[in-house]
Design brief:
This protein is an all-beta fold and about 120 residues long. It has no helices and 11 strands.
Length: about 120
């Protein structure tokens, strides 16, 4: 079984910074895309940023120039550096990974896993 464990959320003032981390562990043979999504209260979950195994990145327009996604393939870890935070960035942030795993004696490709979520609150 695969687990994604997030860390780094918290309370920060507007204009501040936070760094989120998400480590994947378990019977992983390889990880393709990794990404961060967020869900604000009363809203649908939305993509914040994602990154391919070759480190190509994609960002939501609302975070371009402020957030940076990166990954360490050796550690199966994805990061989200968030700068110049705004109150509208307040949400639960979820890590996502699309991967190949070994389970039940078989190889399973393109399996999606989610982290448990970490709260980010931007407020003065």
């Amino acid at each position: 079984q695969v687990q994604l464990v997030e860390s780094g959320g918290g309370l920060v003032q507007p204009g501040g910074s936070l760094r989120l981390s998400c480590a994947a562990s378990g019977s992983i043979l390889g990880i393709d895309n990794m990404g961060w999504y967020r869900q604000a209260s009363g809203k649908e979950r939305e993509l914040v940023a994602d990154i391919t195994s070759g480190s190509s990145t994609n960002y939501a327009d609302s975070v371009k120039g402020r957030f940076t996604i990166s990954r360490d393939n050796a550690k199966n870890t994805v990061y989200l550096q968030m700068n110049s935070l705004k109150p509208e960035d307040t949400a639960v942030y979820y890590c996502n990974a699309e991967l190949t795993e070994y389970s039940g004696g078989q190889i399973h490709r393109d399996v999606n896993y989610w982290g448990q979520g970490t709260q980010v609150t931007v407020s003065s």
